[in-house]
Amino acid sequence: MNSYERVVSTLRGGGDIDFIPCVNFSSTCTREFMERTGAWWPEAHRDPVKMARLGAAAHRLCGLDNITVPFDTLVEAEVFGVPVDFHERYLAWPSAKQPVLRRVVPPIPPGDVAGSGRVPVVAEAVRVLKEEFDGVAPVNVTVVPPFTSMSYYVFDHSSFMSTLERDPEAVKEVLDEVVDVYVEIVDVYVEAGADIVTFYEMGGSASTLPPLLFDELVAPYVRKMAERADLSVLYVPGEALPIMDRVARCSVDGVAIDQSTPVSDARRILDYLKPGYPIIGNIDPVDVLYEGPEEKIRSAVRRAIDEGVSMVAPGSDFWIETPAKHISVMVESARVFGRRRGT
């Protein structure tokens, strides 16, 4: 059984796999991968061939069961005109130079979504990867949904959250205005060959929103995007337990959680609603995966599997200085402790 079959079968709810997959549906980039592939930031954010080469590194070099592009969360905001600092002089994740809007009013959607910002770069990287890895390893693409994209990047965050507190309907009006742009981005990536779309909703956890607002400001928009993807995952970093029952109703095929959310509790809630619903996570990317030592990584993987994850994964992006050896240990541990009977 190869990586593609293993991951796709898990997300489709099938139990006939040889062992639990080890994936990362967030950024899979590290400094060591850049060194070994020759695909460095910031060029790999803007060059589709380098993006594809770097995105495949964790699969090629460490056996990770998926490939993920892009490596940052600003692609969607860039479509709306948010200027991005790619940090040409030192190695760092791209950041927004400034929000486009200070006041919460509906932004003007771009005319040519498929050709805007770095959307065509990501789409071409997906095409390159799909051509090479079709049926061998699933190509995952991350999309930041409207609530997180608007609240963190397009608008001034403080102003956006103040408006949310005073007038949630004004925020909903903005999300209704822009959601079709995000749906079109998903369409572009799916047409390019993306096997999985991961919705990176870092603003949607209970750390930011009460569950009732999740129902109004996150779920409908994720659902609308998920309907356009063959397979999709909702990644909710932070405190996700209070919304776990709601995640299962977002039309996604799995949920990715970080170390803030106990796997066993998430499994209990989801199994009550949808027995066996895929949970992906939740190895601490810094305290465990980056720092090690190797035995600590093995113990964390075994615990996550014992508590009920469907796929082992770090709780978020690989920390940039994570040794490739540590990633290999995580993958190998999933093979050992997640092996199914009879294989």
Give the helices and strands, then pairings.
Elements: H1 3-11, H2 31-37, H3 43-46, H4 48-55, H5 57-62, E1 67-69, H6 75-79, E2 84-85, E3 95-96, H7 119-133, E4 139-143, H8 146-154, H9 157-166, H10 168-192, E5 196-200, H11 211-217, H12 219-226, E6 232-236, H13 244-247, E7 255-257, H14 263-273, E8 279-283, H15 285-290, H16 294-307, E9 311-314, H17 324-337
Helix pairs in contact: 4-7, 7-10, 9-10, 10-12, 16-17
Detailed description of the structure:
There is one protein chain. This protein has helices at residues 3-11, 31-37, 43-46, 48-55, 57-62, 75-79, 119-133, 146-154, 157-166, 168-192, 211-217, 219-226, 244-247, 263-273, 285-290, 294-307, 324-337; strands at residues 67-69, 84-85, 95-96, 139-143, 196-200, 232-236, 255-257, 279-283, 311-314. It is an alpha/beta fold and 343 residues long. The protein has one domain (3-337): Alpha-Beta Barrel (TIM Barrel), CATH 3.20.20. The strands form 2 sheets. Strands 1-4-5-6-7-8-9 form a 7-stranded parallel β-sheet, sandwiched between helices. It has a two-stranded antiparallel ribbon with strand order 2-3.
SSE series: HHHHHEHEEHEHHHEHHEHEHEHHEH
CATH fold assignment: TIM Barrel
Q: What CATH first level would be assigned?
A: Alpha Beta
**CATH architecture descriptor name:** Alpha-Beta Barrel
Give the helix level as a range of percent: 40-55%
Number of helices: 17
Mean pLDDT: 95
Widest beta sheet: strand line-up: 1-4-5-6-7-8-9
Could you list the spans in which at least 5 consecutive residues all have pLDDT below 50?
Answer: none
**Biggest pleated sheet:** 7 strands, parallel
Q: Label the overall shape.
A: globular
- Oligomerization state: single chain
Q: How many structural domains can be distinguished in the coordinates?
A: 1
User: How many strands?
Assistant: 9
Q: Hey, roughly how much beta strand do the residues contain?
A: 5-15%
The CA-CA distance between the termini, in Å, is: 10 Å
The gyration radius over C-alpha positions equals: 19 Å
Q: Specify the structural class.
A: alpha/beta
